[in-house]
Design brief:
The structure is a homohexamer. The first copy, chain A, is an alpha+beta fold and about 70 residues long. Chain A has a single domain, classed as Macrophage Migration Inhibitory Factor (2-Layer Sandwich). In chain A, the strands form two sheets. In chain A, strands 1-2 form a two-stranded parallel sheet. In chain A, strands 3-4 form a two-stranded antiparallel sheet. In chain A, β1, α1 and β2 form a beta-alpha-beta unit. Chains in contact: A-B, A-C, A-D, A-E, B-C, B-D, B-F, C-E, C-F, D-E, D-F, E-F. Chains B and F meet through loops of B and loops of F.
Amino acid sequence: MPYVNIKITNEDVTPEKKAQLISGVTQLLVDILNKNPATTVVTIDEVDTDNWGIGGEVVTEIRKKNAK
Amino acid sequence: MPYVNIKITNEDVTPEKKAQLISGVTQLLVDILNKNPATTVVTIDEVDTDNWGIGGEVVTEIRKKNAK
Amino acid sequence: MPYVNIKITNEDVTPEKKAQLISGVTQLLVDILNKNPATTVVTIDEVDTDNWGIGGEVVTEIRKKNAK
Amino acid sequence: MPYVNIKITNEDVTPEKKAQLISGVTQLLVDILNKNPATTVVTIDEVDTDNWGIGGEVVTEIRKKNAK
Amino acid sequence: MPYVNIKITNEDVTPEKKAQLISGVTQLLVDILNKNPATTVVTIDEVDTDNWGIGGEVVTEIRKKNAK
Amino acid sequence: MPYVNIKITNEDVTPEKKAQLISGVTQLLVDILNKNPATTVVTIDEVDTDNWGIGGEVVTEIRKKNAK
């Protein structure tokens, strides 16, 4: 019955990796908290780098600086 | 003043159905909790089936199996 | 499979009213979007009036003014 | 270490304005709560006006009425 | 930089188990998506069983029935 | 009409500081995006340090180490 929401930037996230995340997080909830996987829901939000900030700075800008 | 967030998979959700959901949820909050509809906010997140998991499995894969 | 989160202030919300909200919202998702109720999850966050603001003002203060 | 999520309708929000929001909210958390900006995360969700309701009505419809 | 929110019912969740969840989810994001753990944030919401519904029913009631 | 959710650890957050946060964030949305403050909602979640992780570690543990 748990609900997990994962927010990541939309950078190189393949369907395979998303499937691994969903499977892995669900298994953790089964292993650690003995939750029922059948009603465990995981959603992934892929957020545009223009819409994500850390340290007061937009990730798009951080990526540009790091690429130099 | 309530805030409601509805997360559903992005499968066949027409604007008409979204309008019904928003109107219906707002009315429930008025009827049950006597909330002021004028400041009741409802947002709907339509999540790609690649980004939604249940039972440790991605919904895209579940849909493929069920279609067989 | 939908997930709904309802945020309300923690003012006079009885277990009965919360049960009605959960039942009502789930039924709306069945009626409007033909969702499976068995995997429809609804959570309610009751937020302290000190932690809720509207119009730039804390609800605790709004309530005090209205009580005068 | 704070996490802030801002939900707005997707109407005329330029990257510059989003950068100002991220920078401004981060600075508020530094100024008011003495938080470390390096681990302060801000995400912005731009929600389609079809998916946002207030007063029981979809924002797309509200905008149409106001435009008349 | 990812942000993960885990919602579970407040039933027998020890600090040790919460620490395991936080550590496990962070490691998954490192292993699968090569994320930087130093800025990966995980929060856990423990929700009262009166405030969690599934199948249109409040978890408190489901627990009572199952205990019979 | 924006909705903002601020998550912080529950460490020394007075009602006065929360009021400043709510007022400050609302003003930012007015100044930067020309939003209507009357329907701008801000909620603050104060999360127990046992339920917040960064770098794969629980904040309660981080605080203990730093206190030494």
